[in-house]
Design a protein that fits this description.
This protein is of the alpha+beta class. It starts with 21 loop residues before the first strand and ends in an 8-residue tail after the last helix. The relative contact order is 0.09.
Length: 624
């Protein structure tokens, strides 16, 4: 029995109503939303009503009010520090992963010298990619509700096939923060195939190559379709390659022509954005066979198609290498590929189709709008989940997320809700206290960010971990969920081999009504949950930094001047006070202040210690 519930009020409806589940393509450059109308997938126009594409751009005005889409894009030149774009490139990434972007963006990404999720600073506020992506999703949700004249809660969101677990989970979290129930995260190539109607005929089998080049990501996927089931034979790509890089190649060409240095463009964000947008315009112009000419300030900008192809040739060749790798990994030959599908606005460049035809020996299919094809496919998948296509096989899925408790009472999801079963997933953890010998692992089921609101399934202890400093042990926790809903949890300390496990039965021993209420509770409290999670994560991170700073001063007394030691201690005490009394943004600001001051000292101490270590090694030492 299914129990219909009004998500806004939390009340159970007397009569079950047919709901619309929408599909969302959360893109690097543009995002859009689609649904099934009269049996066919259609996209929904943005609030401007001109096109279905919503630029994935966010602007924060001086009062920190959020503007999304075309209106936000208009602030890229005048207010680059408060206008965020290409946020998809930052999803699930640390600063080390994205630091090369600093010269091509006008907003500030924070260098904390950690593996934590990258942060973006706007004024005195700190945001992460999940929060920013949620603003785009909120805008799409509002457009859909205005168009459909009904609430929209349930969605399918697409991601590149190349996205890892952290990036997929970040996308789920963004949906949740936007007040959406993310039923499924599906790969963009699968969505594209569905949009072309491939795989809907259970009697047909084929091999498909999906070449997906968007604004910021690229992947090539080889799919085998048989009896309505999609199997990804191989995938290859680059989460840092896309049309933005074409624009950057043109920009650097113009910089060389006009004698503009990297330091000049970095010091002038307005000029950077003006030329970047001009490069994007030039790319589109030459793609239509029209030479481009423009003048920005005193700089003359021009581009023809032959020059453009020379500039992007190395980038396109990278994508072709990925195609070759994917083909090899799939075990198929080019003759066995039945269709090549183009996805992403950057595939409009004629040079790409020409090069793909050389490799695959067939003209790529671009009958559908490459900007819309993924969202249209997501709408088809949503329609399948709504139960409107009875001929398509849907594998059993997990009804609620499964995870463990981490520091601060946070829920760390290991198997997300709606994952296909059987399913296996694992993550690595470490200790938080020096010399810790035992680690208690508590398993929870639910959608809230704090375990106190979720359902406890069981717990066990990993004992006899060799005594090591905090952060050194590598503890791998694996969830193995079988087709009968029985969960086996294993924990192993990888350095010593210490291992233990527990079997949890009756994983789904709650009613559909209880389950639905848990889901509604998670959506209604998403904003406060994520705000509380962000605060707890900031506190955990700050406590680690405090511990490291105190150790650093003690261990490097001989290297630091008394003034340097006193400053580090003072900044550490300030951070301690902020942790006990301050907000998330105040804690982030204090951490940034301490990190910026101590980073040069840490590098100097490392150089000094390495130098001393090398002096102590004898020439006759057998280690040499």
């Amino acid at each position: 029995m299914k129990i219909p519930i009004d998500v806004k009020t939390g009340k159970i409806d007397a009569q079950e109503q047919k709901e619309t589940i929408v599909g969302i393509d959360l893109g690097t450059t543009n995002s859009l939303i689609a649904y099934i109308k009269d049996g066919q997938p259609v996209t929904i126009h943005s609030s401007h009503g001109i096109q279905s594409l919503t630029p994935s751009v966010i602007y924060f005005d001086e009062a920190d009010e959020v503007i999304v889409g075309q209106e936000a894009k208009e602030h890229l030149i005048k207010n680059p520090g408060r206008t965020i774009f290409s946020i998809k490139r930052l999803m699930g990434k640390s600063y080390a992963d994205v630091k090369q972007l600093k010269t091509s963006i006008g907003y500030e990404i924070i260098d904390e010298d950690t593996d934590a999720l990258v942060k973006i600073r706007v004024g005195n506020r700190f945001y992460n990619p999940v929060e920013l992506s949620a603003e785009i999703l909120k805008s799409l949700k509002a457009d859909a509700e205005a168009h459909l004249q009904s609430p929209v809660q349930k969605v399918v969101i697409t991601v590149p096939a190349y996205f890892n677990d952290a990036q997929r989970q970040a996308t789920r979290d963004a949906g949740k923060l936007a007040g959406l129930d993310v039923l499924r995260i599906i790969n963009e190539p699968t969505a594209a195939s569905l949009a072309y109607g491939i795989g809907l005929d259970r009697d047909h089998q084929s091999n498909i190559a999906v070449y997906d080049l968007g604004g910021g990501t690229f992947d090539i996927s080889i799919l085998h379709l048989e009896e309505g089931i999609f199997e990804v034979l191989s995938t290859h790509g680059d989460t840092f390659l896309g049309g933005d890089d074409f624009d950057r190649a043109v920009l650097h060409h113009w910089m060389d022509q006009n004698g503009i240095s990297e330091s000049t463009i970095k010091a002038d964000p307005e000029l950077n954005q003006m030329m970047r947008l001009a490069a994007e315009e030039a790319k589109k112009s030459v793609g239509k066979g029209i030479n481009y000419q423009n003048k920005i300030r005193d700089y003359h900008l021009q581009l023809d198609n032959s020059t453009f192809e020379l500039l992007i040739a190395p980038l396109v060749e990278k994508t072709l290498d990925s195609c070759r790798h994917a083909l090899k990994d799939s075990g198929l030959t080019t003759q066995e590929i039945d269709k090549v599908i183009l996805v992403g606005g950057s595939t409009r460049v004629p040079y790409i189709s020409k090069k793909l035809e050389e490799i695959f020996g067939k003209t790529p299919d671009n009958n559908l709008d490459p900007d819309e094809v993924v969202a249209l496919g997501a709408a088809v998948q949503a329609d399948i989940l709504a139960g409107n296509r009875k001929d398509i096989l849907l594998l059993d899925i997990t009804p609620l997320s499964l995870g463990i408790e981490t520091v601060g009472g946070l829920m760390d999801t290991i198997i997300p809700r709606n994952s296909k079963v059987p399913h296996r997933a694992g993550r690595q953890y470490t200790t938080s206290v020096d010399g810790q010998k035992n680690l208690r692992i508590t398993v929870f089921q639910g959608e809230r960010d704090l375990v106190q609101y979720n359902r406890k399934l069981g717990q066990f202890t990993l004992k006899d971990i060799p005594a090591m400093p905090a952060g050194i042990p590598k503890i791998e926790v694996h969830f193995i969920l079988d087709a009968d809903g029985i969960l086996n949890v294993r924990a192993k300390e990888l350095r010593s081999g210490v291992e233990t496990s527990v079997e949890i039965k009756s994983t789904y021993g709650i009613s559909e009504e209880e389950m639905a209420l848990m889901l509604i509770d998670s959506i209604k409290n998403a904003a406060s949950d994520i705000e509380q999670r962000a605060l707890l994560e900031a506190i955990n991170e700050a406590n680690n930094i405090i511990l490291s700073a105190e150790k650093f001063v003690v261990q490097n007394t001989s290297i630091l001047s008394s003034e340097e030691s006193e400053t580090v201690i003072a900044l550490t005490e300030k951070l301690k006070k902020t942790v006990s009394q301050g907000s998330k943004d105040e804690i982030e600001s204090s951490m940034k202040e301490l990190n910026e001051y101590s980073a040069p000292l840490a590098h100097r101490a490392m150089d000094h210690n390495i130098g001393n270590a090398l002096k102590e090694i004898s020439v006759k030492d057998p280690r040499i």
